[in-house]
Write a structure and sequence with these properties.
Elements (H helix, E strand, L loop, with lengths): L1 H18 L4 H17 L3 H14 L4 H13 L3 H14 L4 H13 L3 H14 L4 H13 L3 H14 L4 H13 L3 H14 L6 H11 L3 H14 L6 H11 L16
Length: 260
C-alpha cells in the first residue's frame, strides 16, 4: 500500500513537472505578457521589472527590448530607453516603429541629427506614415534647418491634406520669419479642414494684426475670446483688443496667398 502511494506521488510530481513551462524561453514569454498587461495600465515601473526578468531568460527577443524602451521613455529615462531600442534594432533591423521611437527619444535627448537618421530609416520602410514625416520636420527645426523643415511640412500637406499638424508647424515657422500673409493662408486652410479648431482664431487675428488690418484682427480676436475664454493666450488677446480699439481701422483690400 505504501509503495502504491509513493508511485502515485511520483507520477503526480512528474505530471506537474511536465505541465510547467518547458524552458526558460517559455517562462520569458509569460513574464513578457505580464509586463505587457502592466504597461497597458501605465504601470511602467512594475512592467520594467517583469521585462528585465524576461530578458534574463531570453536575450534574443527584440520585442521585449522594444517594450522596455517604451517603458523607460514614459518614465523619462531617455538614455535607458535609447539603449534598449538600439538592442531591439540589432535583433530586428527592419522594424519602422522601433526606428520611429528611437528617433523620438533622440529628439527628447536634444540630438536632432541622430533623430533625423532614425526617422529617415523609418520612412524608408514605411513611406506613408505622416507622424514620422512630421517628426522629421521637427528634427530639422531643432537642427536649425528651417528651409528643410518647411519643405517637409509642405510635402506632408500635399500627401496628407487633412493632417493639421503640418499646417500648424509650417505656419508657425512662417510667422517666425514674419511671412504673415503666407501663414494666414495656411491658418485659413486649417479652419476649412476643421471649423471647430477655434484656438486658431488667435493666430488668424495676429496675422491680420501684423498685416495692418485691424478690423479683421479684432473680429478674429473676439471670436477667439468667445470660444476660448480660458486659453493661455487670452490675456494677450484681451490687451491687444483694447489697444486696437484706440486705433483707427485701416481698410485696404487683402488677397490671401494660396498655401504652398
Amino acid at each position: 500500500m505504501l509503495k502504491e502511494e509513493e508511485e502515485l506521488k511520483s507520477n503526480k510530481s512528474q505530471n506537474n513537472y511536465m505541465s510547467a513551462p518547458s524552458s526558460g524561453k517559455k517562462m520569458s514569454d509569460v513574464l513578457k505578457q505580464q509586463a505587457d498587461n502592466l504597461m497597458k495600465k501605465n504601470c511602467f515601473k512594475q512592467a520594467v521589472s517583469k521585462y528585465l526578468n524576461s530578458v534574463m531568460l531570453d536575450k534574443n527577443n527584440s520585442k521585449t527590448y522594444y517594450a522596455l524602451g517604451l517603458c523607460y521613455k514614459n518614465m523619462n529615462k531617455i538614455s535607458k530607453a535609447i539603449e534598449n531600442l538600439e538592442k531591439s534594432i540589432i535583433l530586428e533591423p527592419s522594424s519602422p516603429e522601433v526606428f520611429f521611437e528611437l528617433g523620438l527619444c533622440h529628439l527628447k535627448d536634444e540630438s536632432p541629427c541622430k533623430a533625423i537618421k532614425c526617422f529617415i530609416q523609418s520612412i524608408q520602410m514605411e513611406p506613408d506614415n505622416p507622424e514620422v514625416i512630421y517628426n522629421l520636420g521637427l528634427a530639422h527645426e531643432m537642427a536649425q534647418e528651417e528651409d528643410m523643415a518647411l519643405m517637409i511640412y509642405q510635402k506632408l500637406i500635399e500627401n496628407s491634406p487633412t493632417y493639421l499638424n503640418a499646417y500648424l508647424r509650417k505656419s508657425q515657422l512662417l510667422l517666425n520669419m514674419e511671412l504673415y500673409k503666407q501663414a494666414l493662408g495656411l491658418y485659413m486652410n486649417v479652419l476649412k479642414i476643421n471649423p471647430k479648431y477655434t484656438k486658431i482664431y488667435s493666430k488668424i487675428g495676429l496675422c491680420f494684426d501684423k498685416l495692418g488690418h485691424q478690423a479683421y484682427a479684432k473680429r478674429f480676436y473676439k471670436k477667439f475670446l468667445s470660444s476660448e475664454p480660458n486659453d493661455e493666450q487670452t490675456s494677450f488677446v484681451l490687451k491687444r483688443v483694447e489697444k486696437l480699439r484706440q486705433i483707427k481701422s485701416i481698410k485696404t483690400p487683402l488677397t490671401l496667398v494660396a498655401s504652398k
